[in-house]
Amino acid sequence: MANLVESPANITDKRSARKAENRIAIVEAAESLILEGGYGALNAEALAERAGVSRRTIFNHFASVDDVLVTRMNQYFNRIFEECDFTISGENASMEAEMLSIARKVFMSNTLEEYIAPFAHLLYALEMDSPAKFEEYSHVILERTYDIFLERYLAAYPDLPYLRVAVFASNLAETIGEGVYYYLTRAEEMTVKVAAEAPEGTHPEALAIEAMRQCVLEALDYLGRLVQGEFAS
After folding, report:
1. Helix/strand/coil for 6
2. What is the value of pTM for the model shown?
């Protein structure tokens, strides 16, 4: 499971370290329960048993069981954007080309395997028995991604019209989301296609990561072609 927070081993005060250990155990337990059984599997009793803590300990740390899930998703989201390099290279002719280039680099990096893919699978697991929760959280994540893109690229391109940056930031966030969702809804099919071209003995998890990568890169390629007017006729 992804390491998303500071290790309690780095905390010198024993009481604080124990609290940190409990908090980590609770959010990781929530993730594992949802991956196994969907949103319906997440309740205080199951969470306490899986985390090895009492119900009281859970609610000492979190306002509700839902708050545990939101915390885990925020940990993933924040770590993804901490790991992303938004440095403007200056090698691309336009803001749109630069943003696409950076997005491609993110999905070619280890950030996909370490944080994006586990986050996507956690989110998608909600759809097993709670499509409304899936839609709710997906919308929030899309909005937050758009806000970050908009803030970063308005700062990088202060002379460009606001609407040009805003429209493309929105399109980029939605394109990435569509690419990930396309993979998640066709995971077995896409992984089989990747396996047919991969070296024999490639680990199934590596095949799945590569399949997700290819789906997102294909989606980004379509967005790039739209920007270039390739489909204008």
Report:
1. coil
2. 0.90
User: What are the structural domains of the chain?
Assistant: 8-64 (1.10.10.60), 84-227 (no CATH)
pLDDT at residue 191 in the model = 94
Separation of alpha carbons 129 and 140, rounded Å = 19
Residue 9, pLDDT score = 59
Amino acid 10: pLDDT: 60
pLDDT number for residue 92? 76
Residues of the chain with pLDDT under 50: none
